């Protein structure tokens, strides 16, 4: 009974109220929502959403890599302008992953929020998306006869490959820590 | 095909160098998972865009030039076969007894045959579409099948973790 005596001298464990930490309260209410419960308990909710997220990942990273490589000077026989439909594909796949990613986050909000790999992944995604916009503009506005993209654009393309790779690494490792 | 803990195939895979390494080195399994996802993206990017072009998407891209990305798809496939063997060797029985895993192997086999049809059965013109050229209907069918098959491989792969015990 020692721990009972000890706890009675220390008083009740202080609980931080939701008013003190609105973010914590939000995360908690998200993961206690009916949707979150369904995601975790139904036999197909989480598997289907995760499978869609994986499908989107393959399209975003795989297709963006081809665009980045072309901007870096590979396969010059591909006209830059003609690469533009590929960006449309990347954006649709990204939208799929934004939605499915939010659903996965909501299902276990507190754990993901506290995960180092989650934070790295979100940072990498935001930066990679920020680079996709000027890269897309370059496809539209570039001189069709230019053999070499300007230095800044080539740095953006190389960084895009690195950032999407970081997204895969941190996303996959979220399962571990 | 019923398999047991002491079936020759299971013992061979389990005791192989790959199996011993995957169980003995703690960071190897997570690293292989990361690589497996990279391989998937490489394969889907290269093969998927070629298939879409055959189907009439992004007609401004000449297929002859697009084929120069093919080594990327091959690299992705090789990475994923190697890492995939690693996963199975780490604990062969639950994978080989898993129906979805068997389905994935079957889908990969059909997808591989489909690629052979594209390169060795279809007429050469189907692979050499110039800018704005349309592919013959047979080539479109092969491309549509390729997309469907490779995405099914991803979907089956994902479901191995949810249908089996001790599978990831």
Tally of separate domains of chain B: 1
Principal-axes geometry of chain B comes out as elongated
The dominant shape of chain A is: elongated
Poorly predicted regions of chain A are: 1-8
Secondary structural class of chain A: mainly alpha
Most extensive chain interface and residues per partner? A-B, 34 and 34 residues
Give me the number of helical elements of chain B: 8
Feature tags:
heterodimer, A: 177 residues, mainly alpha, 0% strand, elongated, disordered N terminus, B: mainly alpha
Spell out the blueprint of helices and strands:
The complex is a heterodimer of chains A (177) and B (168).
Chain A: H1 2-10, H2 22-31, H3 34-41, H4 45-71, H5 84-107, H6 109-114, H7 116-141, H8 151-173
Helix pairs in contact in A: 3-5, 4-5, 4-8, 7-8
Chain B: H1 8-15, H2 17-24, H3 28-54, H4 63-66, H5 70-90, H6 92-96, H7 99-121, H8 137-163
How would you sum up this structure, described in words?
The complex is a heterodimer of chains A (177) and B (168). With 177 residues, chain A is mostly helical. Chain A has one domain (17-173). Chain A contains 8 helices and no strands. In chain A, helix 3 packs across helix 5 (84-107), helix 4 packs antiparallel against helix 8 and helix 7 (116-141) packs antiparallel against helix 8 (151-173). Chain A is elongated, with a radius of gyration of 22 Å. Chain B is mainly alpha-helical and 168 residues long. Chain B has one domain. Chain B has helices at residues 8-15, 17-24, 28-54, 63-66, 70-90, 92-96, 99-121, 137-163. In chain B, helix 2 (17-24) packs across helix 5 (70-90) and helix 3 (28-54) runs antiparallel to helix 8. The longest helix of chain B has 27 residues, at 28-54. Chain B starts with 7 loop residues before the first helix and ends in a 5-residue tail after the last helix. The chains are: A mainly alpha (177), B mainly alpha (168).
